[in-house]
Amino acid sequence: MSEDLLRHEKLFIGGEWVAPTDGEVIASINPSTGKEWATAAYAGTGDIDRAVTAANEAFRGPLMGLEAAVDALDFERALTQLAELERAALGTAPA
User: Fold this and answer.
1) Mean pLDDT of 29-52
2) What are the sequence ranges of the domains in the chain?
3) Helical H runs in the chain?
4) d(CA 89, CA 83)
């Protein structure tokens, strides 16, 4: 194995680079030369499960409520605009 190989021997899971737990590090072969030119982490089923769990945790994390907050803010703005239209139609000033 040559020292000038590209090495990508970890997986990016849960915001960090981690070694595969049940996968492995495999060789990538250059088809034009038949020689190894890089190594890469290959995720096994346990690694995939960890990645899916991390993605679900991130999705349900501290920013999950942000969408609801934005929806509530949009709703409040819509109510305010509706009230302004009603006041204009009735000819009254806001209190």
Assistant:
1) 94
2) 1-59, 63-90
3) 45-59, 64-90
4) 10
